[in-house]
């Protein structure tokens, strides 16, 4: 009976065990990791952080901070380097205060929240301890009862709706009633049963936060410390196992896993309605709970060392041979063709000389938006300053003049120009104003050629020609990491 009283939620002697995994580094011995975690915790900008620390240190706002909090805030204000905070501002982060409407980092506020949290977290640790005792077969009758419940739910999934109602009835209402109708003292009566009729004999019990500096408060801190270590250990172990085969650092292996997952997805999409899901859930449930038994764990460990370990190298060799034979990853990097337009402008009217103006990504034709609005062309003055697109690199050594000027003129439906089909392949403007081009457009395929009877026509102010060059995808050495 005492297991369901309110005292069981706060008074406990058994600590939450710390999970130990071989080969993992302790986070406490990683000073660089501490520095990185400190940088991640400071989500605000430098000015906001300094302002909050100054407010906490000076006590200008009535937050109820103690002298110790103000002194520690002053110390932290001197310890945090400015360049560390500036680096945080430069890195785009969805957890930044720009995207989250929550209070910024404040040491006194964090201290107060930790105290409140630690005083109320005891219920969670009690539930964790009970769940661990249940799954590790500390009391076999309790674990077998759990297996019976799981069996009924797996065979009849509609019973799943009964579990939360029954849990509220058995673990909330019944203990609350027994707390108000306690049994008589053992020494005063010599019977194991008693009547619960009549008025309540005891006040209702509630779960109260543990008082600071009390035994339960420090027990919560002990269990919280162990849970943080458990999470860090499990996190590192999962990343150590899952990340290498799935992040394509070994592309043949990751491609094989991708292929198997794709085939499994297609098969399940077609045959999932044919599988006996109730039996599958029952087997999974019984297997998961049975693996927690100490005898089964020792049996599996001994069988693994005797029977499975000698064949692991053979299986790994077969898998590597299959991957190397059937998974082919020899595709060349992606390539694209980029273009740049060399613009020249005539000085001194029709008899003037052409002057190199700039290299622009657009042809700056008579009916282009920039030309109509009167804006200057955008680009660079020198050929050497033309850079490849972001994420790409040059695939060949030099630019090549596009000899098919008519094709790109027709593809872009450029109007009001004359095309050289021989020589330097210049595409020049026709002499006239923009209104003439708009009222009498020269349609697709109707541009005038200088070498087809148009050599005596008057040229406009601008001319251009197209240069092309191949680019390929650039190999990125560091793409960063995903924040946890």
UniProtKB/TrEMBL annotation:
It is found in: Membrane. InterPro entries: Peroxisomal_Membrane_PEX28-32, TECPR1-like_DysF. Pfam families: Pex24p. This is TECPR1-like DysF domain-containing protein. The chain crosses the membrane at residues 146-178, 253-270, 277-296. Residues 15-60 are annotated as: Disordered. Its main location: membrane. Residues 31-54 have a biased composition (Basic and acidic residues). Keywords: Membrane, Transmembrane, Transmembrane helix. Residues 103-469 form the TECPR1-like DysF domain. It is a multi-pass membrane protein. GO terms for cellular component: peroxisomal membrane. One of its GO terms (biological process) is peroxisome organization.
